[in-house]
Amino acid sequence: MKTLIMDLKSKGLLPLLDGSTSNEPLNRIIAAKLLGRDYQWLYMGNYYSVMTDVAYLIKTSQTHNAVINLIDKNADIILSARKMSLDEETYADASGVTLIETPIALDAFIFIVNPNNKVNSLTHEQIVDIYTEKITHWNEVGGNDMKIFPFVRNQNSGSQELMESLVMQGIAYG
Fold first, then answer.
1. CATH code at 35?
2. DSSP 3-state of 24
3. pLDDT classification of 4: cutoffs 50, 70, 90
4. CB 90, CB 79: distance < 8 Å
5. φ/ψ of residue 25, rounded to 5
6. 137-151 confidence digits (pLDDT tens)
7. Which of helix, strand or coil describes residue 52?
8. Beta-carbon neighbour count of residue 82 at 10 Å?
């Protein structure tokens, strides 16, 4: 079956899937479903992954690059955690491309701490205070006496743009 799939792909008969890194498991499931192939969830020690024999048909170019690939016709379908950004819409318009955005799911954020840290939950306000550096140590929110190093993704990352709109809501980072 793999050879047949490769032959169909080389002839342009299979959709080219691309998307954000966070959507790679969903992209693999969609590819397997489109091609009538099996897939399975596997626990990889500290995360889950989706395994399928058609995983090689999926690109994971991250959100911005996936949108650009779609505009440039290097992808047929992409999965993204956000709508197109203004610069991506401008590029699509300049390229004479009209894209259709269809929401298929809702996103959520999960904030993770080291399992040795005593913090079990944070409020929205505490998360904002961490990212604005009003809170700088875990013991300020019930955890260990250790400095907090909040993770921030790059601009044009779908998850970072959602973080800014859903969590930070216009509040500047510290």
1. 3.40.190
2. helix
3. low
4. no
5. -60, -40
6. 999 999 999 999 888
7. strand
8. 22
